[in-house]
Design goal:
Helix content: 40-55%
Number of domains: 2
Radius of gyration: 30 Å
Strand content: 25-35%
Mean pLDDT: 82
Distance between the termini: 23 Å
Number of strands: 8
Structural class: alpha+beta
Low-confidence stretches: 1-22, 24-30, 285-289
Oligomer: single chain
Number of helices: 9
Strand order of the largest sheet: 1-2-3-4
Length: 289
């Protein structure tokens, strides 16, 4: 049995689109796999402003040494008041007398507005009896760097342990979110392949785009269990997970695969019988004798 040209062309287009979808998915997953294998700490350190980080650590060192006279000239106008010395002494009491075993940058954010640059830098100091989280706010204006905020929080465990991805002590919602983070992308990928093979008469690329995107985001903090809903938001393949830094909490994002669901509901209409190709006039019943 031989297929006519009219029958072969749709199959060729479907095969080509299916191959394109598979290559697109591979291209999307490849950077994720490559990033997962990289040293996150090394990548993160490249984003930390070296000069400002050194200045912030020097403030903490002066605070640990009770050298308040060296810190006060660095304070911004909003912190220079009668209570500044008393607050510095109170924060110094949170710092252990011993030398820290390690200092790790766990947060870095730089914002520029006009001629002012703001640096939010967070460090984790490890001591014999625990950890100390130090959040600093620096501002550079007209070439001068000032301290605009300082916050110290003692912790019994490191952020790496506190924000580690684990199922220990997690509730039912964690398991549901994790299962959906796997199931939704698989469902969307299956729908994409089915859509590429379906006999959609026109604008198949619009259906492919519609199927690939999830609508209405649900975000979930794996460490704290806090969640939020963003009605006007989208997610490719309906799910994602990421964290803001090497020791930041994992944030899962889920989105409803509306396009994939609608496609499977409407697909039977695309699979109706196609009209048979018309025969050439005058050929019916002809034969060579």
């Amino acid at each position: 049995m031989f297929d006519t040209d009219a029958q072969v062309r749709p199959r060729m287009r479907s095969t080509f689109l299916s191959a394109c979808i598979q290559r697109t998915i591979a291209a999307l997953l490849l950077p994720i796999l490559l990033l997962a294998g990289c040293d996150q700490d090394a990548m993160f350190e490249k984003l930390v402003p070296a000069e400002e980080a050194a200045a912030a650590k020097d403030v903490v060192a002066k605070l640990a040494a009770r050298d308040f006279a060296s810190i006060e000239p660095r304070l911004g106008p909003n912190l220079r008041n009668a209570d500044a010395r008393a607050k510095l002494e109170q924060m110094a009491g949170l710092i252990p007398a011993e030398k820290p075993k390690s200092v790790r940058t766990v947060g870095a954010n730089t914002m520029r507005a006009n001629s002012v640059t703001t640096y939010n830098l967070t460090f984790e100091y490890e001591y014999q009896g625990g950890w100390l989280l130090v959040a600093t706010l620096l501002e550079r204006r007209d070439g001068k760097l000032t301290l605009e905020g300082l916050h110290l929080v003692p912790n019994r465990q490191s952020l790496a342990v506190a924000n580690a991805f684990t199922f220990e002590g997690k509730g039912p919602l964690h398991y549901v979110v994790f299962a959906l983070a796997i199931a939704i992308p698989l469902f969307v990928i299956y729908a994409l392949v089915a859509c590429a093979r379906a006999k959609i008469p026109r604008r198949k690329w619009l259906w492919l785009l519609f199927v690939a995107i999830g609508f209405v985001q649900f975000t979930f903090n794996w460490t704290t269990g806090a969640w939020d809903v963003h009605p006007v938001a989208f997610a490719l393949l309906g799910a994602a997970f990421a964290k803001a830094g090497p020791v930041a909490p994992w944030i899962f994002t889920l989105a409803f695969p509306l396009g994939a669901v609608l496609f499977f509901l409407i697909r039977p209409g695309f699979q109706g019988e196609q009209p048979a190709p018309a025969k050439a006039a005058g050929t019916e019943g002809e034969s060579l004798r």
